[in-house]
């Protein structure tokens, strides 16, 4: 497999671009911007052995997830993804058929959200597979939701169940047998669904103030909002949305579901804050209120009411 042969395969997989756009083939992609819109940019890197185990994850699933984690960042700002850029450092162990399956998975999610691949880079890695993705998105001027916009008294809310992805990772790392229950959790880890439509809806509500996606666990991610907004929080652990799959897995193996839900991460659900007046509207949409924001002399503190531990910390990269 040659570098330009791979690029040709990628270009063939993404033949249709939005009007006025130019993609793979020049030094830069061309993405025209309209009046009254903001461009959003997200970039993320996945490294073999740190973010995934190449021996376990299917190439098509890894392609999907590589794009999904960046599309989720666009959703967390209340935007819509418009284009992506993919760079790969490929070790000798990666075959041409593996690369084709990776591209197919990347294409699956790209087509789902109308987010074409428009460029990138390829090189050889001496040992480990490295993947870097950048996604461009857009949102109406002034509508993007930032971490620093949370307000004292806001409700703390999440868009969906927490902990399934972390439990899926536990299945992978423990090497336990995979029945239907375990495979459902592994699927949640390998094939996250960015909450694009939910993010767009929430960004249209004036009552929603701050928003981000849950990549490192609420134990870390909520603190980012608190630090940026200089607030503290109270979380009612009894109100956390936990799936039947997670509860059954933890019951079977004697594990604490709250630890997965609060410290595990990679759920890629949305974490957002909103005025108390929006409670009924939030719950009507099937979203979940899990706590509230409080003024604080020492920002970043979280009171975990009903938790099995005095504190929960999410994933830290360093």
Fold and architecture overview:
By secondary structure, this protein is an alpha+beta fold. The chain is built from 10 helices and 10 strands. The strands form 2 sheets. Strands 6-8-5-9-7-10 form a 6-stranded mixed sheet, sandwiched between helices. It has a 4-stranded mixed sheet with strand order 1-4-2-3. Helix 3 links the parallel strand 2 and strand 3. Helix 4 (164-174) crosses helix 9.
Q: How would you describe the oligomerization state of the chains in this entry?
A: single chain
Largest sheet: 6 strands, mixed
The number of helical runs is: 10
Structural class: alpha+beta
Task: Report the count of strand segments.
Answer: 10
Strand content: 15-25%
Strand order of the largest sheet: 6-8-5-9-7-10
Shape: globular
- Mean of all residue-level pLDDT scores: 93
Give me the Rg, rounded. Answer: 20 Å
Helix content: 25-40%
Brief synopsis:
The chain is 35% helix and 23% strand. The protein is built from ten helices and ten strands. The strands form two sheets. It has a six-stranded mixed sheet, sandwiched between helices.
Fold blueprint:
Elements: H1 3-13, E1 37-47, H2 59-76, E2 80-90, H3 96-112, E3 117-124, E4 130-140, E5 155-158, H4 164-174, H5 180-190, H6 196-203, E6 208-213, H7 218-229, E7 232-236, H8 244-253, H9 257-264, E8 270-274, H10 279-284, E9 288-294, E10 302-305
Parallel strand pairs: 2-3, 7-10
Antiparallel strand pairs: 1-4, 2-4, 5-8, 5-9, 6-8, 7-9
Helix pairs in contact: 1-3, 2-3, 2-6, 4-5, 4-9, 5-8
């Amino acid at each position: 497999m040659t570098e330009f042969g791979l690029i040709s395969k990628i270009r063939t997989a993404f033949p249709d671009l939005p009007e006025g756009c130019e993609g793979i083939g020049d030094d830069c992609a061309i993405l025209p911007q309209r009046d009254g819109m903001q461009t959003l940019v997200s970039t993320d890197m996945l490294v073999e052995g740190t973010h995934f185990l190449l021996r376990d994850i299917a190439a098509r699933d890894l392609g999907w997830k590589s794009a999904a984690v960046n599309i989720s960042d666009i959703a967390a700002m209340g935007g819509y993804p418009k284009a992506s850029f993919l760079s790969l450092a490929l070790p000798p162990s990666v075959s041409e058929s593996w690369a084709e399956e990776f591209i197919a998975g990347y294409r699956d999610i790209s087509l789902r959200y109308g987010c074409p691949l428009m460029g990138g880079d390829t090189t050889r890695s001496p040992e480990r597979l490295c993947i870097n993705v950048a996604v461009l998105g857009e949102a109406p001027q002034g509508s993007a939701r930032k971490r620093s916009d949370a307000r004292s008294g806001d409700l703390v809310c999440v868009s969906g169940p927490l902990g399934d992805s972390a439990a899926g990772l536990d299945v992978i790392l423990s090497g336990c047998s995979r029945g239907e229950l375990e495979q459902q959790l592994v699927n949640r880890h390998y094939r996250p669904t960015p909450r694009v439509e939910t993010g767009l809806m929430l960004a249209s509500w004036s009552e929603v103030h701050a928003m981000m996606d849950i990549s490192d666990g609420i134990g870390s991610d909520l603190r980012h909002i608190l630090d940026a907004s200089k607030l503290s929080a109270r979380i009612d652990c009894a109100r956390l949305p936990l799936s039947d799959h997670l509860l059954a897995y933890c019951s079977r193996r004697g594990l604490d579901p709250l630890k997965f839900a609060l410290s595990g991460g990679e759920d890629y659900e949305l974490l957002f804050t909103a005025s108390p007046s929006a409670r009924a509207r939030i719950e009507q949409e099937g979203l979940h209120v899990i706590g509230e924001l409080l003024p604080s002399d020492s920002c970043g503190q979280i009171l975990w009411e009903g938790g099995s531990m005095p504190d929960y910390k999410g994933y830290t990269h360093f």
